Amino acid sequence: MLRPSTTLPRRGRGPLWRNPAVRALIIQAVLFLALAIFIGYLVHNTLLNLEARGIHTGFGFLDGRAGFSIPQTLIDYTSDSTYGKTFVIGLLNTLLVSALGIVAATIIGFLVGIARLSPNWLLARLATIYVEAFRNIPLLVQILFWYYAVLRALPSPRQSLSLFDAFFFNVRGMVMPDPQPLDGFSATPWALLVAIVAAIVFGLLAKRRQARTGQALPVYWIGAAIIIGLPLIVFLATGSPLEWALPEMAGFNFRGGINILPELLALWLALSIYTAAFIAEIVRSGILSVSHGQTEAARSLSLPEAITLRKIVIPQAMRVIVPQMTSQYLNLIKNSSLATAIGYPDLVAVFAGTTLNQTGQAIEIIAMTMAVYLVISLTVSFLMNLYNARTLLKER
Amino acid sequence: MTDSTFRTEMIEAREAPDQSRGVIGWFRANLFNGPINSIISIVVILLLARLVWPFLEWAVIDADWIGTTRDACTGEGACWVFISARFESIVYGFYPEAARWRVDIVFALLAILVAWLAIPKMPRKKWVALFTLIGFPIIAFVLLVGGMFGLQHVPTRAWGGLMLTLTIAVVGIVGSLPLGIILALGRRSKMPFVKGVCVIFIEFWRGVPLITVLFMASVMLPLFVPGNIDFDKLVRALIGIMFFWSAYMAEVIRSGLQAIGKGQNEAGQALGLGYWQRTGLIILPQALKMVIPGIVNTFIALFKDTSLVLIIGLFDMLAIIRAGLTDSNWLGFSTEGYVFAAAVYWVFCFSMSRYSQYIERRLNTGHKR
Q1: Does B44 contact A123 at a Cβ distance shorter than 8 Å?
Q2: Which distant-in-sequence residues (6+ apart) come within 8 Å of B324 by Cβ?
Q3: A residues 2..31 contacting B (CB < 8 A)
Q4: Burial of residue A236 (number of CB atoms within 10 Å: 0-12, 13-18, 19+)
Q5: CB-CB: which of B191, B194, B219 is closest to A356?
Q6: Residue A392 pLDDT more than 70?
Q7: A136 touches chain B (CB under 8 A)
Q8: Domain B86-95+154-367 has what CATH class?
Q9: Nearest residue, CB atoms, A141 vs list B212, B300, B345
Q10: Tens of pLDDT along B43-67?
Q11: Range A338-348 average pLDDT
């Protein structure tokens, strides 16, 4: 009779390195040591090199006098200001062009993305061509094109191209009317603030009313009327205390008005057009990701098209669109650093460019510049994770 | 019995009315189905007429094509002579004329390898891929740098043009893919220190713009090595580009790793396979195949961003064109220069993106259930 062997070969403990826990410990220890030695070696070399070049490390240089001028400053700055101030100026300029770019790219991107889904063959094709053309050309080429081939080719200030005699385009950029607030203007912004609060309160009340009675109020229209109407009434009641300083030709250049640098215009155009191509694709894929059954179900409940779009399709599409859109916004902010190629005074051009060249404090300056972008991206991705957790599909 | 009250045979199908077939029908269905659509169509047609025709007139009809000097630029349109006059330097940069055949060989080899890998029917893919990743870089290095086997040494200062653009792109791609795989595996590791290092590495590079990375490579890297070592500028830029894109690659590959079911790994364990066997033979082949479109998209982004090296003073294709625009004999041809550069980049990127869509469609059949 056959009997299964009852004596399995005893499993020995085997060599220590076969134990997964021990092995993990060894691998990590080796990695740690290797990294520590490598970093130590770099630090050692760096210190030697800095000593040989006579560079003192530390952030003391930030108090030094900058001694160079910057063509666009959002806050007071002269060449007597400190290097620390150049950091702030550069950061503000980066944020300005990023904010402008994000607004424009979102608008263009949404329009193009929706146009790609249009039943109109021609419009859909045009949108496709837009997307395929602009996202496959490097952003730097586009920036250089807008700056050197378009804006730099504009006529001199004397022969400016004018739009309604208020906006002038020339080789030095765009000149536009400058709003001059008079006495009593400050009431209008306050009215706007009050109107926004009132509109939000009204929206909440309308929602509660709908929950109680089932009757919906035209919240959007009334809200818009409050936000536009109240400041307008206040503005007119205080006697329209705003004047527009129209730019005028004086000598070889314009006097009055706000002059917008051609660098800013070129960067803004290129960033918005380029990013919009990506946003358009995100919007399209977001809308397509809403399953057809959803719209059909809405139709079978006889919801009107507009409500279907607003209450069924868009909220679900947003779940797909928003996370990708934020990463595009982050890309746009990072891409705005290409400003340095055409000399728009952003953080990289001013601080990591001129200031670095003047002070030679490469490590501190590059570290500060990178830290700015890192803080922005990490903050946004943190917020994004919160959003994702909130809008996650609630499943069983 | 016959009943003449009813027809027993079918009436032959009549053709659709004129209005709904042929060209007119297509127009009515796609462009003029409703008042709003008609208005949109007319606006788009007018817009196209205003934009496309003048552009064609400028770029083709009124353009100057033949000649070698600026005198050839007579017409109202574009003067492509600007490009053709400096075509050699746009392709080869400052590479010595006598040694340009070496660049040609590398170009040809690259084209053959890429075509081999891209065409699905070609045999022995695995070996060709291995050769592309290991053998080709060595051959290209020997041919381009020279200084051995009796080849004249060409310093990287002399490199430029499309050749430099492609060099940066290929080195970036070949370098960032393996590094990205290692980082992606590391990020999914159960060892906290390994995981932490990979997460910090990936998030750091993904959080900063490439420009600052290149600045760092050009001003900070020389400080990191002993003072007597001369660190080649191109190599510095390449290291920066490789690290930067490996982080993006890692995230793409990680998404593929996450899509592989746990069962695959467990089945491997049950068969007694070790970590590297499971990863190399079971997990990675499936994961990489799944994310080929994502990898190609990263390649496209990398290729576009090679143009950034002009900011740290390397003469890639765009930089050569830009330098040509400051030539006092050829002032005022920015539009031609940048349109040409845009067209070259576009051809490369668009073909890559079409290829990735094609692969996506091919792979879809296998994974859709």
Answers
A1: yes
A2: B82, B86, B89, B90, B330, B337
A3: 24, 27-28, 31
A4: exposed
A5: B219
A6: no
A7: yes
A8: mainly alpha
A9: B345
A10: 888 888 888 888 888 877 777 777 7
A11: 88
Determine how many CB atoms are found less than 10 A away from the CB of residue B147: 11
What's the token pair of residue A44? 């050692």
Helix (H) or strand (E) holding A220: helix A219-237
User: Exposure of B109 by Cβ count < 10 A (0-12 exposed, 13-18 middle, 19+ buried)?
Assistant: middle
DSSP B15: P
The residue extents of the domains of chain B are 18-61, 86-95+154-367
Count of residues making up chain B: 369
Select the more confidently predicted residue: B225 or A346. Answer: A346
pLDDT above 70 for B207: yes
Cα distance from B368 to chain A (closest Cα, Å)? 16
* Residues B148-165 pLDDT 10s: 777 777 787 888 888 899
- Could you please report the per-residue DSSP string of B198-213? HHHHHHHHHHS-HHHH
Q: How does pLDDT run across A260-301, given as a tens digit for each residue?
A: 888 898 999 999 999 999 999 999 988 888 888 888 999 899
Dist CA B84 CA B323 (whole Å) = 15
Q: What does the block give as tokens for A30?
A: 């080796």
**Pairwise CA distance, residues A379 & A377, whole Å:** 5
The more confident residue out of B310 and B15 is B310
- Structural contact between residues B242 and B172, judged by C-beta atoms closer than 8 angstroms: yes
ipTM of the complex: 0.85
Token pair recorded at residue B31: 């462009």
Q: From residue A249, how far is each of A72, A244, A263 by CA, in Å?
A: 21, 16, 22
Select from A28, A49, A348 the Cβ nearest to the Cβ of B227: A49
Share the mean pLDDT of chain B.
84
DSSP B288-312: HHHTHHHHHHHHHHHHHHGGGGGGG
| Model pLDDT, residue A140 | 92
B183-219 as b/e: b if 16+ CB within 10 A:
bbbbbbbeeebbeebbeebbbbbbbbbbbbbbbbbbb
Handedness of CA A301, A304, A310, A316 (dihedral sign): positive
B/e letters for A184-213, b = 16+ CB within 10 Å, e = fewer, are ebeebeebbeebeeebeeebeebeeeeeee
- The SS3 of residue A179 is strand
**Which residues, including other chains, have CB under 8 Å from residue B118's CB and lie 6 or more apart?**
B355
pLDDT at B225: 80
Give the chain B residue whose CA is nearest to the CA of A132.
B350
d(CA B70, CA B119): 43
- B161 beta partners: B316
Pairwise CA distance, residues A213 & A352, whole Å: 61
In the block, residue with structure tokens 């007429």: B49
Q: Which residues pair with A255 in a beta bridge?
A: A248
pTM for the complete prediction? 0.84
Task: Find, among B319, B317, B345, B331, the residue nearest to B82 by Cα.
Answer: B331
**Residue A137 pLDDT:** 93
Per residue in B221-273, pLDDT (tens digit) is 888 887 777 778 888 899 999 999 999 999 999 888 888 878 888 999 899 88
Residue B367 or B104, more confident: B104
Smallest Cα distance from A200 to chain B, Å: 34
Residue matched to tokens 């209450």: A311
Q: Where are the alpha helices (DSSP H) in chain B?
A: 22-30, 35-56, 81-85, 87-92, 100-118, 125-130, 136-145, 161-187, 192-207, 210-215, 221-224, 233-259, 262-270, 275-277, 284-290, 292-305, 317-325, 334-367
Helix, strand, or coil (residue A299): helix
